[in-house]
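Researcher: I'm preparing a figure for a lab meeting and need a structural model of a single chain. I don't have an experimental structure, so a prediction will have to do for now. The sequence is pasted below. Please return the structure as tokens so I can convert it later.
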Amino acid sequence: MRDSGFPADLLFRLFSVLLTTAIIAVLLVTLSRMPPFASPDNPTVNEVYSRYIEKGVSETGAVNTVAAVVLDYRAFDTLGESVMLFAAVIAVIMLIRTGSPDGTQAENSGKTKQPLVLRLIVKLTTPFILIYGIYILLNGHLSPGGGFSGGAILGAGMALFAFAFGSASVRRFLSFKTFSVCTCAALLFYALVKGWAFFMGASGLSTGIPAGIPGNIFSGGLILPLNICVGIIVAFTVYALYALFSEGEV
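Model: Understood. Here is the structure written out token by token.
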């Protein structure tokens, strides 16, 4: 006996289409009412924006204005983003990690047999990928780059090596304990030094950390060490997510 009522799946599809259309319409109307790009009336063109451009180098010592904003003026925003990455990988570890606490299963898993040509190419290119990632990470206050982009390159390099040779090969120098200690230490260092710097600044006191000569590798105050912390978190998170989703183990 057939149902004489309206099919539930058709009703669901119709509702989905109507809801999506309504959301698109609201976004298009909002976009049409926004001020033109680079217009003097744009809310983003204000004294804060001018302060970043005019005094960013003298106040932070960073030639790269983006790095000065991300890791100095708005450093706590970046800390929140790093914490979210850390929380995401911890959630994935809790849900799908299959290795035993003593690492017994980890020693017997993570082995792969990829073609010889692929393994040879990966073995030759991985050192250059890692060196390039380190360069991008350390030069974030001098040129485009920094902790997020450099860390992503480093994490991708380790994931590529694990794909060719198995995660057991990466686990020789990046164990789960190393991953946990390094990411927690990087987050704690970031939070403590920037909390101290903001507290001293709000109190009208000097942090005692010189900004250095803009353009030199050792300049930018805390930006270089904070870039290193962010790079560690991003690199380990990228690799950990790959290892967990592919083999269930870090």
